[in-house]
Amino acid sequence: MGDLPADASALMSAVLESILYGFSLLMFIGTVWALSYKRRMRDINRPIAVVAILLLLASTVHMVVTIIRIENGLVKYRDTWPNGPAAFFADVTEKTYLINHALYIFQTVLADGVMIHRCYVLWQSTRVIILPSLLWCSNIVTGIRAVYGNSQATANPDNVFAVDVEKWIIAFIFSTLATNLSCSGLLVYRVWMIERRVAKLRASKSHLMPIVRVLVDAAALYSVMLFGFLICFLTASNGESVLSDMALPIISITFYMVLIRITINCRYYISTASTRRTTEEMEQGHVQRYPIRPLEVHISQFTQNDNPSSYKVGNEDRPSTGIAKESQKDICT
C-alpha cells in the first residue's frame, strides 16, 4: 500500500472533487446558455443536451455519495467499524465505494461514446470508428468486471490492488486512455485537414483553429488524469482514490468546454455569414434601384486672345460610353 492513509486520501478526494464539481457546475450553466441562447426549443440539439444533463446528474450523485461516505467513515462508523476509519475507506466491498466507481464507469463510457459519435459525424465513415468502437466495448466489459470483482472480494476486501481486481482496473484505464487519444487524434486531424483545404480560399480569420486548440486541451487534461490514475495503480498508491473521485468532474469539464467552444464558433460563423449575405443583398438591391447609366465627361477648354482682358471658354461633351459627341461654348469676359 502507499504511504497515504486511506482516510486521509478519502478526505482529500472529497475536498478536491467538491472544488472541481463547483467549476463543472458553472461550465454546465455555460453549456445551457450556449445551447439555448436565441434559439427556440425545437432548434436545440437535444441529444447533446441530454448527454450534458446526464453528466451533471452523474457528477451530482457522485458528489452526494462522496459526502455520505465521508460522514459514514469519519462520524457514523468511526468507533464501530473494525480497525477504524482507515479500514472503512479501504474496504472495496462497501456500498458507497461500489456506487462511486459504478458512476465513474458510467460517465466514462458515456463520454467516450460521445467522442466516437463526433468522429463519425465529422468523418462520415464507419471504418474510422471501428478501432474506437472496439476500445469502447472494452471499456464496458473491463469496467463492469472491475466493479463486480470489487463487490465479490472476500480474500482481500481492504486491498483494491488485489491481483484479480487490479488487472481489470488497469485494463479499463488503458482502454479508456486509448479511446480518448484515438478519438481526439481523429477529430483534431480531420478539423486540421478541413482548415488546411479552405485556408487558401479564405481571406478572413480562421474559425476552426480555436476548436482544434480546445480539443487538444481537453484531451491533454483528461489524458494527464488517466496517466496519473494508471501510475497510482502500478505503484499501489492510495492516490488512486483521489484521482478516481476527481475524474467525474474532469470528464464533465472537458465535455462542456469542447461543446461551448464549438457552439460559440458556430454562432460566430453563422452570424458572419448572415451579415455577409445581407450586405450582398443590399448591394444587389442598390444596383437594381440605381442602374448604371452612361457617363458623360464635360471638358472645359480655355483659350486666350491677344487681348489680355478677354477669354474664350468652350465646352465639349465627350461621352466615354459611345454616346454622340455634343459641344457647347460659353464666352466669359
What does this protein look like?
By secondary structure, the protein is mostly helical. The chain is built from 8 helices and 3 strands, in the order ααααααααβββ. The chain has helices at 6-36, 46-76, 84-90, 95-123, 130-151, 163-199, 209-234, 239-289, and strands spanning 296-304, 311-319, 326-332. The longest helix has 51 residues, at 239-289. The protein starts with 5 loop residues before the first helix and ends with a strand.
Summarize the structure in short.
The protein is mostly helical.
Number of helices: 8
Total number of distinct structural domains: 2
Radius of gyration: 35 Å
Q: How much strand content do the residues show? A: 5-15%
Q: Output the strand order for the largest sheet.
A: 1-2-3
CATH class of the largest domain, named Mainly Alpha
Query: In CATH terms, what is the architecture of the largest domain?
Result: Up-down Bundle
Q: How far apart are the first and last residues' alpha carbons, in Å?
A: 114 Å
CATH topology of the largest domain: Rhopdopsin 7-helix transmembrane proteins
Global morphology? globular
Largest sheet: 3 strands, antiparallel
pLDDT averaged over residues: 78
Count of distinct strands = 3
Which structural class matches the secondary elements?
A: mainly alpha
H/E series, N to C? HHHHHHHHEEE
